[in-house]
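Notes continue from the previous slide.

Worked example: a multi-chain complex. Inputs as given:
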Amino acid sequence: MIKPRVLIFSGYGLNCEEETKFAFDAAGAIADVVHINDVIANKKLLTRYQILAFPGGFAYGDDTGSGNAYAWKLKNHLWKELAQFVKGDHLVIGICNGFQIIANLGLLPALKYKYGHRQVALLHNSTTRYTVRWVDLKNESSSPWLRGIDTFMAPIAHGEGKFYVDEATLHELKQKNLIALKYIKGEICEYQNLPANPTGTLENIAGITDESGKILGLMPHAERALLFTHLPNWPLLKETYKRAGKPLPKFGPGLALFKNAVRYFI
Amino acid sequence: MISRLEIISKIADTRAAVLKRKIASQGFSVSDVVVVDVYTIEKQLTSKELKQISEMLTNPVVAESSFAQMLAPQKFQWAVEIGFQPGVTDNVATTTREMIEDLVHAKFRNGEGVYTSQLLFLSGKINAGDSEKIIKSLHNPLIQKARSKNFAQFKIDRGMGKLAPRVKLTGFVKVDKVNLNVGDEELVKIGKQGIANRDGSRRGPLALGLDYLKAIQTYFKKAGRNPTDIELESLAQTWSEHCKHTIFADPLDEIKDGLFRHYIKRATEEIRERKSKAVIARREATKQSGNRSSRFAHDYELGDYCVSVFTDNSGAIEFDQDYLITHKVETHNSPSALDPFGGAITGIVGVNRDTIGFGLGAKPIANTYGFCFAPPTDNTPLYKGPNKTQPMLSPRRIMDGVIAGVNSGGNCSGIPTPLGFMFFDKRYKGKPLVFVGTIGLIPKKKNSQKLFLKKARPGDYIVMIGGRVGLDGIHGATFSSEAMDSGSPAGAVQIGDPITQKKLSDALVKEARDLGLYNSITDNGAGGLSCSIAEMAKEMRLPAGRQGGCEVQLEKVPLKYPGLAPWQIWISESQERMTLAVPKLKWKKFQQLMYSRGVEATIIGTFSSSRKCLVKYKGSKIMDIDMDFLHNGLPGRHLTSSFSVKKYQEPKLPSTKNLSEILTKMLSRLSITSNEFISMQYDHEVQGNSVLKPLQGKGRVNADAAVIRPLEDSHQGVILSHALYPTYSDIDTYQMAAASIDTAVRNLVAMGADPTQIALLDNFCWCSSTEPQRLGQLKRAARACYDLATIYNTPFISGKDSMFNDFKGYDESGNPLKISVPPTLLISAISVVKDISNVVSLDAKFPGDLIYIVGETFDEMGGSEYFNLLSRDDLVHIGNSVPQVNAHKNKKMYLYIFKAIQSGLIASAQSVGRGGLAVALTKIALGGMLGLEINLKKLPGKTSRDDFALFSESQGRIIVTVAPGNKRKFEKLLKGNAFGLLGTISNKPKIQIRGIKGNKIVDFDLKEAELAYKKTFRDY
């Protein structure tokens, strides 16, 4: 059994590379954090990996639009290699700022497999404020990233996560089943008494895929829902388990997503 | 060539909607707002390049753009454009410039640049006067520039026109000599207003007293010359209160070694010695008797966990075998008063550099904040100048700006913010207090090199990395060492650039540090290069008898724009810079690494063993001062203090009928109510290290402490808390300090910290610190720090003081007034926990659980929130019976609480603080969204009235809930401590409390409590 290798981009204000690496490693992959300039300096590097991850962060401080400047850096220096990569049997994930990056880069939704064109936008939240809270998510796709997952909870933390497309594109996304994750009112929203949709995002959309399903972009941070003690209600759950004489679980619901990626290759 | 790109949203624009709401809320009749983003690019570019640039900056899904100023709506009243003042940090412009450079493969040259602004089109019934007021409310003239045109003018001009706000400096690039052979009067003037320019104007405060200037006069007389301007400015920085902390260092009354050494540092030294000795004694005892001591209380006292105290940029304690945890808390008060956003963001990214600058570089893993503001509802204007000139920003604008600044700094840097508070008092109106803290993680060793130690060596290059130097932040150190008045320098304002710092931080603590590419590092904070280089030179590694020195070539310092005078380069506090000592042989590798990470690194000089601080500019020597004089030349001052007990009238309160109503009011108090709106905009999940979050339980209640897990694969955690009681200072600063320490410690203990493993940080924010009465208050507070710390055995590991939080200005009628903050001491506490699964949150867990109070309640209402609530403008209740901390009793009790938590007997816990028992109980109930049935008949202690029992702020109390099955065990364990069973958690969603005589005194719905707790800041 060969563990799949993950390249996690870093640099210029991305900041979730370490916990994303921890998540992939915990799921059984071998993840490397590589600075974008090191990839640019050694473009063949990409061929060594099966999975690319664009982690969360504040690339270029969200200046000129979140994810935009980093996307253009990729476009200006690595587009050929990236286009080649997504043609192969590989997986790509963009989480939060990473989602904003690959949306601007046009890796998503890439309708009709036309990669490289911006087709969707992630706009300022309705409050125009950065929002940090937990959400419930419903999986509506058959993407390998989400296989076997029905619902799960994770935190969001972003200022620009309001998904937007024009009506025609929305129709096509629905038709092709590319809307992967939607915010719903589930366990954690009930627990904290919060509305399902945290940002005013269109039709509760939290994440989409490309037509192959192998490229997933999502606003929620699955890697921050990796351990049991990440959950906001773990102290209550702990007390519940304890009084029932049960042991405490180690992991949280986010791990499943990373395990799916590993399972895809083995 | 100037190109102006305008970008407009094609779809409904949230930013415009929010702006419209904001303008309408001020009473203006605005019917529409359109926002256009403007990029002004000053550079020769081909039309193809311009098209590509427009494509990069415009997301075609939602926006369109034009270079021809063609995007204005058909009809509008006013076009308003807000951009930055020349030279003010413009982060979006910096990114855009990088994007363009990356596109055209050519760097921008001098005179070329990118500038961003926002163009607003306002429609509605807005006359010229209205538009002026609206513009005023939308920008801060210290950092921003606004211009406007009405519809007709805009049409005639065909747009706003192209304007590139390039910095044009035509000043004095020369070095001036300053004649010190002058009378005392002129010396005083130089100290207060600064060096005279050739045109007679002054360069801004040096904050040097006459005695200091005389010492400088004598030094240069001996040298047979007058000082240059850079020499004098440099001495002013190094000798400033901000840098030297003279008030804490100088002898005071009978205390020859000064307050810091005598009370703070001595406490730490004694505790560390005691803890170390305890280990040795234990080892001996074990050897002799062969078995371990049975008294558990003693077991936990062992070992000194302090590793670095007071000397480095942060303090550090042991985390585990391989890692240290660092902590530092700073204040950024004066800058936040003038430019709240800029002051706060540079505060938070500044204290991050105290982490990056610890040892050879720690990784920031958590931020904390604490804001002291005037009530945001206070709209009475305040002026710095007479006759309604130089208006201060309103408390609400200061509050909004500070909150947004810390948001931006923390979030952009990818550092979680698990803990913070807001405290309100009208005396923070002249100067808010902005506390910002950062916790760091650093391995102890890498390749046999101890990473927490550092020393530059002779011959090492002096290397500056990160941002460039501009006029921003000149005289920050000397400015914060004085009261704020009309002479306060505008140049003291800085704007943060968190991404430049994030790149620098990652390149250092994730790469260069572990490659061993530098010998020393420090932050460029107050005083800029002048302080960082001189400090590093002082701390060098040298053979015995030798002394460090430096030689700087100032013209090599990279500048934001040309035209800065050497003294300005030397003392500028431009942000996001660090100074390093890089060995010559490692420079190439270091330079390459920094280059590949997008970090600018420049050699600006060499460390030496010359005993001199030598600065050259284009070959000529402009500064030549003995290191010894620079650091130790300032004459000691002998301070004297006075102290008298203030006696206030004891409030005559009628017995209160409706205590339910009082409790709901209490829950809505500014300093007690939920500040969820901050917790939900400050990322506390990033880095995946959150364990106990700022909002806890179903009801999302703000907690007094937080827990993080620095390493995801380790069970160990770090608990953080803090506390302050500025209103107690009105009665007695000793008890104010004691209560702050007790509460900070207790907040940690309630969540599961081991009370014998706690370290403390002190942040004194005082006022008028030259007045004997204020010094007397300071002395008492410092003594309390010593007393409490040595009883609890909680060493201080780091601290900071800010001694002049006073405002001198004018009221609406032009009457002069002075506003001084109440003497404020923030105590931060930190502790390592062995197993995070043992920590306890505040929320009630299950109906039927028992509620206990541990600790005693007395009629200690002096300075309480309750008295404050009952006060009116014409009748202020302060009282005299300020809570007295019984530290010996508490210390024992905290150990038992720890033991109970370790044994799994406690389901939830809340320390009792501001607002007293009733507030703490309600928080537990709200946390679990469960009811309470309480009876205070057997409340331990002695209270004379029901309202006093509910709202007394007696220290040393913790409320815990216990599963019924653990009742016997819990009570047995706690035996010997004052504790009482108060009632049960109930399924009925009501807060029901019976009083000290057993009759019902509080009875209201949980929903009402929730509403009261959350309504105050609901719309913030």
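Summary box: Confidence is low (pLDDT under 50) at residues 293-300 of chain B. Residues 2-157 of chain B form a domain with the Mth169; Chain: A , fold (CATH 3.30.1280.10).
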